[in-house]
Description:
By secondary structure, the chain is α/β, with parallel strands linked by helices.
Amino acid sequence: MAHPLFRRVFVLVLDSVGIGELPDAAAYRDEGSDTLGNIAFAIPLHIPHLNALGLSRIRPLDHLEPAAEPAGAFGRMAEASPGKDSVTGHWELMGIVLNRPFPTFPQGFPDETIRAFEQRIGRRTLGNTVASGTQILNDLGPEHMRTGFPIVYTSADSVFQIAAHESVIPVPELYRMCEIAYTMVGEGLGVARVIARPFVGEPGHFSRTSNRHDYALPPTGLTLLDRLTAAGIPVLAIGKIRDLFGGKGISRSIHTGSDAEGMDAVDRAITEATGGLVFVNLVDFDTKYGHRNDVAGYAANLERFDQRLGAILPRLQPDDLLVLTADHGNDPSTTSTDHSREYVPLLVYGAQVRPGADLGVRDTFADLGQTLADIFGVGPLPNGRSFLGDFVAPRRSPVMASIREDLERREQLTLAPLAAKSVATRGRLRPEPEDQIRPAFQRDRDRIVHCKAFRRLKHKTQVFFAPAGDHYRTRLTHTLEVSQIARTIAKVLSLHEELTEAIALGHDLGHTPFGHQGERVLNDLMPGGFEHYEQSLRIVNVLERDGEGLNLTWEVREGIGKHSKGKQGAPVGPDVDNRPSTLEGQIARVADLIAYVNHDIDDAVRAGILKQDWLPAAPLAVLGHTHSARIGCMVGDVVTETLAGGLDVIRMSDPVLEALLDLRRFMFSAVYENDRSTAEFKKAAGILEGLWEKVQERPEQFLDRRTLDAEGLDAAARDFLAGMTDRYAVALYEHLFIPKPWIDLAGRWKDSGD
């Protein structure tokens, strides 16, 4: 009976991605081989999703900080079978442990074998040596093209390879030759594989094509694949899996010409597969980079895979299981061009996987097959020990754990690997007991909503000063629109919604009265200047709760502090210094710009400052001609570009980003710096300048004594003025500077000093 938690399992074999030499590596002349380790030492790898799953927790890798809270289970597996070839490795993954290696031919194949083969195909051959596939094309390719003789060669693996130029020997004829060779050296000598190696190009510029085809011996016994198909459980093979198993135990196969095509097939399978095993081999690591000693190319392919991985992780269903592993090593940093005898990584991820589970060192690749047999209820297999119980998250009764802990566990199970997690927060300014119900970021969101500074946003200007109409935005409604846009993006990307919302709700707490005009006035008056984002941080860190602050988590505070983009800055892109560390903070940063550019257009048209047909045509052609169309376009673009890029940083496409920035530039010239819309703000500037002088004259009447004593007069005056609403500032100015009939003074502003 199949395990109730899993409906589909995706096994991705990163061909040759080993992770350190096995104890018997010396017997294979592979001392010092360490595919991942040596690559990471030579080139700093940007593989955030693999790392988040726990890759560098398997063993340390240079330039990669081990994930403090891995999103998946992690371990490594040793090969029990003798050998280090793809057939042996894949068979062992599916449950077959060989007791002797496949034969190899370090001196080339016997003369009698080659003569018999030549007689069968009706032409002579070239080569019959151990060689690198690329080098032998350079050496013998021209002669092959002149004579029409196929090139025969082998390697340290048990393989009979036939290379031919597609214009000299057509691919169907090459396949016929391989079929003949298979009956002679496969069935006859026990060679593991015959491989067709078609190529194209001119001398000095030959390249292999995707028409490669492997003819492998069938497995020596029943594999997990046979068990699955016999039980009616579908097995989808992607890449060269079908070839490696001689077509046995495969329900359907998809041939691929590259790792990119392989991941495209995985994308489709996530959408289309209804159940069973999706078994994938990504061969480019091995054939294009390992065998060619291309360290930089291998590193780049790891980073490309990591990007694709980031895009598929959020699409996995709650009853899916993802397994990442390899079949052997092929260290491109060594002098050898052959496979290497290494451990292979084991990463397991899914909603039902206990994050951070350490699977240890497995004695055989067959442990994976046994685990899958356990999941699908077709075991036991003759070899291997299941590790299912080591990673399945235990079902807990609410009686056994607090509500908060259950919510935190839900975050670990459902959010993307690079999403912020409440349990992994970098902490608060001051330690405090956890809430019994709410995780840390949810608690921060609630603290912001209930603070005084948030309530004051209701009466602070967004664009238009003290608008009489009910439908104009204020700083509060702007904040709510930012929050809505940001949370939508976070939800779709499987990121932390409450953290995103907390940053969005808190990002403008420090805004002055009268919008950015007020900020400019305080910047001129305050020694050292004034920035609203700095004041927002000061509010949550110091000013709220009578000087104690809200004591928010580091992630929320960092997101608030890095939300601002200025007049020229972009919300996404290479400005790493101003980019929030969390993806959630990056979302809030881009949502702020999406919100204000669009709703400010709406308000400007309502106020008669703009007409709809004055808007620039070029950005509207990209973004849309209505408020909702533009927001929908930009939100959709952020989601699709971020997923396509691997969900490691928040992105926008170049056309959409440039259209947004064009629209912002237009708004500065037409609205934000327009004489008509800013006329009242010039009066407002005089109000703040007058209040600054007055409160400094009488600090004991207006300013906070604690701030005066600790930080001085200017800091106390800044906090007082920045915290005002528009109407409070106007009313106080009127009281202090506008003459009134004496009868109106009673009871209004006691002890005015006049």
